[in-house]
Amino acid sequence: MKLLTCSRCQSVVHFEAEACPACGAALGFLPEALTIVALDPTGDDADWLWLAPARYETGELRFCANRIHHVCNWMLPASGTAAGALCPACRTNRIIPDLSRADALDDWRKLEIAKHRLFYTMLRLGISLPDPADPDTPRLEFDLLHPVVGQPKIRTGHAGGIVTINAAEASDAIREQVRHQFNEPYRTLLGHFRHEIGHWVWAQRVQHGGRIEAFRTLFGDERTDYAEALRRYYAEGPRQDWPAHFISAYASAHPWEDFAESWAHYLHIMDTLETAFALGIGIHPGNPDTSLPDLDTRDPYRIGDMHRILDQWLPLVFALNSLNRSMGLADLYPFAIPPAAEAKLAFIHDLVRAG
């Protein structure tokens, strides 16, 4: 994530901010520029339009309709859009939580924070967000569902361009319970979105992108029975040697899951490194005899070689894990990256850069 600032007073602000905490300016995110700006009302109270600073040349803007629920701060061009229009991130929602539930709005906000952060990274990678109303773009829609007593279980997953997220996992307590149930070291809403979008990326960039044979060389044959592979994984656990070949235990279940897990970790790495670079974070050990290298982080989006990105990532994540342990917390990134998984990350990086 970039370091975002209020364009009026230059105070730092968070990606989700609707108003500057320092000067009070209304804020909006411009997806085309990948930045937050302070907004001025046009004075047209009937249509409630806004202007960004002139240097962005946006013309009149309107808020995404979901801003009324405080789940989105993205802006749309007023030209060609009507009041009540949704931004590129929110228009991918096919089903949102039932807002008549007491906990639904808070859960939805948490889900949208994760989804919007996912889409920031996708746009940063140059991957356009499909419009569900445009039949010429690949299908990508989200069902954000709470379980209902007497109805089928809600299973987080992807099928045919539809991503389903169990909205109950917006509850930290429920998500932590599930994490323990599946013996996972890491489980977050953002991780769910990053993983499931990996299945969609596989369909667009691998299956339909002419890269299936290269994929099979690294990840294995995806024609292996998927349902049986998952049944065996949940019944018997991961294969014994998974740490030597995969980025996570679940990645060993099936080549599709290996790609989706690797994709999610790729996004973890790129976004965290960008944040570290934006903040000027480096690693400069006080002990000259340590094996930890001296490091000034660089913008990962400007590095063409995934191995050089990992040269930045590994010392940074060691430092971050050490800081967490100093606070009595679990590791921020509780994973090791074996050479086989590193090769898969390099495949994904090349896939993205090839467009």
From TrEMBL:
Coiled coil start-end: none
Residues of the Zinc-ribbon domain: 5-100
InterPro entries: UCP012641, Zinc-ribbon_6_bact
Signal peptide start-end: none
Superkingdom in the source lineage: Bacteria
Protein name in UniProt: Putative zinc-binding metallopeptidase
